[in-house]
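Second attempt. The first submission of RUN domain-containing protein had a stray character pasted in from the spreadsheet, which I only caught after the job came back as garbage. Lesson logged: always re-copy from the clean sequence file. Corrected sequence (154 aa) follows.
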Amino acid sequence: FDQKEKKTLLGTRKDYWDYFCDCLAKIKGANDGIRYVKSIPVLKTSLGKGRAFIRYSLVHQRLADTLQQCLMNERVTSEWYYARSPFLKSHLNVDIISHLYELNEVQFDVASMGYDLDSAWPTFARYTHKFNSVKHWHRPFCWEKPSHESLKKI
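This time the job returned cleanly.
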């Protein structure tokens, strides 16, 4: 929300991936996800790399820690976001980080590769219920369990 428009020397639009890179480049132990995403040769855009990074961070339960590290770097954050962004308002970013830490209770099983993340988020994902080892297919943001008929189509 309220990210400043930034471009590379060649005019390519920078995205939240580049923000994470700027924030985490010099923090030891916080840039494992950055190195992992940079090692995926099929990702060409900042948006695709950002999507892969978020998926990596969710699987490794590091999204809250990562964003918290970035928000603590106020200089870089203010270079990337306008003053009205919730990332620059401490009372709001505390809530955001708190909610992201709650996501650590969810065991995500999403691959960072195997999808064209440069184009779009995947329309199907696999998840494992924490109390049951049975895996289900679902559409993102769909709260209903898929019917057996819909699973046959997959």
